[in-house]
Design brief:
There is one protein chain. This protein is mainly α and about 280 residues long. It folds into 2 domains: about 1-155, UbiA prenyltransferase (Tetracycline Repressor, domain 2, Orthogonal Bundle); about 155-283, Up-down Bundle (Four Helix Bundle (Hemerythrin (Met), subunit A)), CATH 1.20.120. The protein is built from 13 helices and no strands. Its EC number is 2.5.1.141. InterPro entries: Protohaem_IX_farnesylTrfase (IPR006369), UbiA_prenyltransferase (IPR000537), UbiA_prenylTrfase_CS (IPR030470), UbiA_sf (IPR044878). One of its GO terms (cellular component) is plasma membrane.
Length: about 280
């Protein structure tokens, strides 16, 4: 039973967001790392993200039942009763808010609540009616980078804003690749995604544009003096390769051939980026 409750928290989404928290937290910590604050931030945000995923699962039961990759989820198969999941989601969400408010700071708590609201009450419903749901959802997915930064500084500055938009560009590339890979599933669920409404070719072009924006934004972090040329040289190697693959994807008629590669590269890119900003801040 416990594994079913763990499943509806979507651990892979939580892990992905923890990567963003770690990078921004370590960058802003520089030479004064507070281990207790670090753990409190990760735990608090993870619980709120887990709560948002539980509610997302509850709202999407009918949609998930129509898609091959989600038809065996615990709530779809009634391995967990909706009321139990509802209580579980409320409990871990409140616990996460309390941890951030009591052990981190109110700004980080407030940002996490905003992320929860965007994901559960806007994105989850908007994907049924608008092709721009992914863009709105990316705001929620970028907030953990802000929280990791504000947990240390208790303020929002230009660098944290840059991080926020950088991860929006990254997420759009990442999620648009997913929307191509699983396009048939999304069609069965009657979702209004960009790849369905505007076509795969246009989605591929937008992936290229977003990766280009991501790459240029990385340059800006160095040119504005936040990160070194050491960071820029290393991150550019992977970024330009990612951009090159996205260009090849536009020319490729087989929609899965490079879209899968773009997706897996996006995971490597975000881990590498956050590792570099954490390390670069100590050099």
């Amino acid at each position: 039973m416990l594994k079913h409750y763990l499943e509806i928290t979507k651990p892979r989404i939580i892990l992905g967001n923890i990567v963003l928290i770690i990078g921004s937290f370590l960058f802003s910590s520089r030479f004064s790392f507070n281990f207790f604050l670090f753990l409190s931030t990760i735990l608090g945000v993870s619980l709120i993200i887990a709560s948002s995923c539980v509610f997302n699962n509850l709202i999407d039961i009918k949609i998930d039942s129509k898609m091959f990759r989600t038809k065996n989820r615990a709530l779809v198969k009634k391995l967990i009763q909706p009321i139990s999941a509802y209580i579980f989601g409320i409990f871990i969400g409140i616990l996460g808010i309390f941890i951030l408010g009591a052990l981190v700071n109110f700004l980080s708590m407030f940002l996490s609540i905003i992320g929860f609201i965007i994901y559960v009450f806007i994105y989850t419903f908007l994907k049924r009616t608008s092709i721009y749901s992914t863009f709105i959802g990316s705001f929620s997915g970028s907030i953990p980078s802000l929280v990791g930064y504000t947990a240390v500084n208790n303020s929002i500055d230009l660098f944290s804003v840059f991080l926020f938009f950088i991860f929006i560009f990254w997420q759009m590339s990442h999620f648009y690749a997913i929307s191509i890979i699983y396009i048939e599933d999304y069609k069965h669920a009657n979702l209004r995604l960009f790849s369905i409404e505007r076509g795969v070719l246009k989605t591929k072009k937008h992936i290229f544009y977003y990766i280009m924006c991501f790459t240029i934004s990385n340059f800006m972090l160095t040119f504005l003096g936040y990160l070194s040329y050491f960071f820029l040289c290393l991150v550019s190697i992977l970024n330009f390769y990612w951009l090159y693959i996205s260009y090849l994807n536009i020319k490729e008629k087989n929609n899965l051939k490079f879209s899968r590669k773009i997706f897996f590269l996006s995971i490597i890119v975000v881990v590498f980026f956050n590792f570099l900003i954490a390390v670069d801040s100590k050099l």
